[in-house]
Amino acid sequence: MKLGMIGLGKMGFNLALNLLRLGHEVVVSDIHPEKGAELARHGALSASSIEDLVNKLERPRIIWLMVPAGVVESVTETLAGLLEAEDIIIEGGNSHYQQSIARAEKLQKLGIHFLDTGTSGGTEGAEHGACLMIGGNREVFTSVEPLFRDLAVDQGYLYAGESGSGHFLKMIHNGIEYGMMQSIAEGFELLEKSSFDFNYEDVARLWSNGSVIRGWLMELTQSAFSKDPKLAGIRGVMQSSGEGKWTVQTALDLQASTPVIALSLLMRYRSLEEDTFHGKVVAALRNEFGGHAVVKED
Amino acid sequence: MKLGMIGLGKMGFNLALNLLRLGHEVVVSDIHPEKGAELARHGALSASSIEDLVNKLERPRIIWLMVPAGVVESVTETLAGLLEAEDIIIEGGNSHYQQSIARAEKLQKLGIHFLDTGTSGGTEGAEHGACLMIGGNREVFTSVEPLFRDLAVDQGYLYAGESGSGHFLKMIHNGIEYGMMQSIAEGFELLEKSSFDFNYEDVARLWSNGSVIRGWLMELTQSAFSKDPKLAGIRGVMQSSGEGKWTVQTALDLQASTPVIALSLLMRYRSLEEDTFHGKVVAALRNEFGGHAVVKED
Amino acid sequence: MKLGMIGLGKMGFNLALNLLRLGHEVVVSDIHPEKGAELARHGALSASSIEDLVNKLERPRIIWLMVPAGVVESVTETLAGLLEAEDIIIEGGNSHYQQSIARAEKLQKLGIHFLDTGTSGGTEGAEHGACLMIGGNREVFTSVEPLFRDLAVDQGYLYAGESGSGHFLKMIHNGIEYGMMQSIAEGFELLEKSSFDFNYEDVARLWSNGSVIRGWLMELTQSAFSKDPKLAGIRGVMQSSGEGKWTVQTALDLQASTPVIALSLLMRYRSLEEDTFHGKVVAALRNEFGGHAVVKED
Amino acid sequence: MKLGMIGLGKMGFNLALNLLRLGHEVVVSDIHPEKGAELARHGALSASSIEDLVNKLERPRIIWLMVPAGVVESVTETLAGLLEAEDIIIEGGNSHYQQSIARAEKLQKLGIHFLDTGTSGGTEGAEHGACLMIGGNREVFTSVEPLFRDLAVDQGYLYAGESGSGHFLKMIHNGIEYGMMQSIAEGFELLEKSSFDFNYEDVARLWSNGSVIRGWLMELTQSAFSKDPKLAGIRGVMQSSGEGKWTVQTALDLQASTPVIALSLLMRYRSLEEDTFHGKVVAALRNEFGGHAVVKED
Known about the structure:
- Four copies of one chain form a homotetramer.
- By secondary structure, chain A is α/β, with parallel strands linked by helices.
- Chain A is 53% helix and 15% strand.
- In chain A, strands 3-2-1-4-5-6-7-8 form an eight-stranded mixed beta sheet, sandwiched between helices.
- In chain A, helix 1 links the parallel strand 1 and strand 2.
- The radius of gyration of chain A is 23 Å and the shape is globular.
- Chains in contact: A-B, A-C, A-D, B-C, B-D, C-D.
- Chains A and C meet through helix 11 and helix 12 of A and helix 11 and helix 12 of C.
- Chains A, B, C, D: Keywords: Gluconate utilization, Oxidoreductase.
- Chains A, B, C, D: InterPro entries: 6-PGluconate_DH-like_C_sf, 6DGDH_YqeC, 6PGD_dom2, 6PGDH_C, 6PGDH_NADP-bd, NAD(P)-bd_dom_sf, Pgluconate_DH.
- Chains A, B, C, D: Pfam families: 6PGD, NAD_binding_2.
- Chains A, B, C, D: GO terms for molecular function: NADP binding; phosphogluconate dehydrogenase (decarboxylating) activity.
């Protein structure tokens, strides 16, 4: 099929490369033109702008957005002014599902179709086979299904349902991911604090083979320890990019008791600070009622 | 190799069967003699008692224990009175690692070797390839390594270190498992409470293919939903068999902050009750200070 | 002073009564006119409508809103159309602080002043002395300070700062309250599950006298147990009215790790369900990998 | 009454002083003899050793132990060799209730009585009126009740039940205290992270007067902020002395879901570390699958 790919970061670049290999025609565009030039060497048609990209496609156009969450809105608005009825936007980024629902409704008034598409599998998946969760109109989905089939690993794509369901699934996927990562991490913390002398790469390799907790995250754990046996070179600062927070906010709205996902997020926040104000208050209170010693600031 | 297998429950039976298929000589014993008889049809030598089993082996004897946690102590005591120096006990159950350390020390005084061996992979793993974590003397481990190599999947066994380290690793493995299961479960609870209409088997299959959270637990989730699409036939009572509790107790002793594993366990306890006393207290307090309505008992 | 009181529920009625006793002139209004009639017997001037109430006050008018959170917006809008420059609205309900900031800004354009006023102390406090947290313009606060001084217990009111700070403080107060109530409740659950045979009213009275954890909530705990020694008559369903959720949402926005307040809220949500979907998933998974028995639905 | 007081630290010294003021005869002993000498100036009879203290009392002797948890066992053993039938030991420290049960049983065989006595109220309570929770034989309790009545605030002592119940109540009291302190502390952390500019001493004073969350801990919060408005001089290191851990261990044994008390403890453990191993693992995993940047160690 022929399609446009807007956004050639780690994910978009690899998805485009993958599509080219599989024989699709891909018109590409990025704010960094050298990305498009590089893909042109792999057979892509490089567009100089979004308008140029739109012009290089035939109706009904198919455009895959893989841009940072912060610019999805502006790019979508630009596209809304350029596209025509029956054109299709596949939004592959990590947008909030409620925004995707709103975008789909807005575009639908112009006759433009919108498929919210959660993408998992990391940069490796983008290149070698991803996991895709697609929401929107089923007929529209079917019309571009060959793209999803080619980009995903076997059984790795799903028409999830109405608009928003694709990004909702991706959000929940990430919430689960937060919990699973924290679970694994707590386990290794216990190994580290124990009096035994484990080789963590060996343990992660072992648990990747035949155990109940085997899976890709454990394989990645092995990979990480293979590069730095005690992770001595990095700090335990756990950044987050939004989906975990959205998951917990959604849990609050749905009155769902999800303590493990919530705590996984809160421990990330905790890791951003070397010291806490709540700790100071508790330490001060212990001193007040029991005369317990406090640790003074230097 | 030739060895004895004591305990022919789901795990022990399958391990013995697996060993027989691979050409080992296995003397078997269980309190239910029909289990031994069944394995005899697959080539095992069935012993009428532990003493008989010991007598049917040559020195240095190798005996694999796969009995319920509650009887490990008594069976080990019995064996201590029958075995001789250089004999080897492989304890494959879910014993507390501190008990394993104590047992190893006690047996060592008699010259009997003891390998604490955590076993993961479920009943399927016992039959088709398990994950084994072994603690104890390295030379003793090496002398029986062919057994571990044959029973485990490729790269699925590890000499973990000194006595206790095998069962310690298994305990932590199970702690991680608690957290990962609760993470997955919370994710599906959010799907269930959402206004979307997901097919959970499809979602679990999708996430088993190409996603970051793919792994055996997700595949089992798919399997469970394939049998009962909404799990309508079962109650959400989450039993536990001890290792999760041990993990949290160990975290307390090591002063390790492991909120996700701890909450996974506490939610299991919560699930054992239809109503809680703490809930009554909070409800009563809200009524006291704000006049908020309470839900009356029928 | 002379003021209007709109909303004569449990809180507004008692505040008005208290003001009347202290010699203030109070014009009252409620959608249930009998409330106004009852207060008229205590000296209030009962208004037949909001418009009537506004007309019965002299400029600069002082109007205290004590209406349910759901109607604050509409009543405020009505007042915006009736009041004049320099009039003052004291909003004493549990509104979200960001809404209060927005309302203050909107009214300021009309020259109308707005003091967001968090009220604590329960219905008892409304009658005998409350705790008041006030945000908005300091001069406006000062102009009506006598009202706050009269309604509050000694040292029980505070000019908290700019618009929104009053309701922010009240929100955080309630978040702390959630955590403290859950703490007390968990303690009594442990007493209940222990093998000892405690008299909970005696324990709560004891802890109300001289202990580190003494305070009003412990006194209310005693009061609750004095009426029902084991709380046998009520179910442990823990409703919530919003401020706890807002606190956790705020914590997420501020990237603050507040596990105890978060869990207090999540346990309330958990209490609304007799069974959980996450519990079903975990139970099903245990069955899948280990053959562990599940509890069947009836 | 006449009694011996062993252990003249912050708590024991003040209790003895308080008893002397109220007209009791107190024989005192401490490993630091100057403590006894100081109390002698207030009318105490200072003993040179435990044996001397025992000899200075008449049968049936009453001896109050107020020694550090680590030496209760040895002092009790010493007393067991010196005391006679019908003598009474009041153990006022923070011992684990199961140890108190064991001690009571052991001493009972010698005819010596043992009252496990939890003491709350801090050093201030020891001097001006404490909260006492007493377990053991009811007749023995009654025989020394005047001491408890004099040392406690009004209604501030309770015969809790059989042996161990006093220290059990104290343990749970401290578990609740952990949760309440963490609740308050999280609230102030949210104030600190907000964009408002609160005066924390003012807020704590406000909440100490008329609010739902008023109580001694809030008063102590005010006191702490009065000395250091932002607690800039201390670090948020939250030490713990055992009872919180015991409470959580007890919750695990009783299969009680007590997330708030558990998390209060785990956050204390977290505060002992500037960085965590679990944080490193999560950061490394994010880098592995998504190429997310990590924070390097210096």
